[in-house]
């Protein structure tokens, strides 16, 4: 019996992902703006800066990660779930926050950025390969 290709219709959880991204963008960037313009940089404010930076970057890259997943997924495979999109966006947010944290004592260099991104990429490839093995 001939198999039909998977539907090209987007999964319903993608709308929720985009709504969450919009909410994270608004809360994260507005919170960062308010924090930077009104507060003195002390310990509590520094941690709040990292949390808000993570929320803002994760929300901002989520639509781009969604687009790349839709664009680069082969037609023969189902589209990744919204949880995968959120996880990949969170990895990017953690990468940016880690780079910002390493910039405080001025130890961030291009090789450190490369190997940090490589480590996150290897972890994500491992997780996706396990998920795709379970989907079949």
Distance between the ends: 18 Å
Helical element count? 4
Mean pLDDT: 90
Structural class: mainly alpha
Proportion in β-strands: under 5%
Task: Characterize the biggest β-sheet.
Answer: none
Order of secondary-structure elements:
HHHH
Global morphology = flat
Q: Helical proportion?
A: over 70%
| Radius of gyration computed on alpha carbons | 18 Å
- List unreliable stretches of 5+ residues: none
Q: How many beta-strand runs?
A: 0
Walk me through what this model shows.
The model has no long low-confidence stretch (mean pLDDT 90). The protein has helices at residues 13-38, 43-72, 82-103, 110-135. It has 136 residues and is mainly α.
Defining key terms:
136 residues; flat; mainly alpha
Short note summarizing the structure:
It is built from 4 helices and no strands. With 136 residues, it is mostly helical.
What does the secondary structure layout of this molecule look like, with pairings?
Elements: H1 13-38, H2 43-72, H3 82-103, H4 110-135
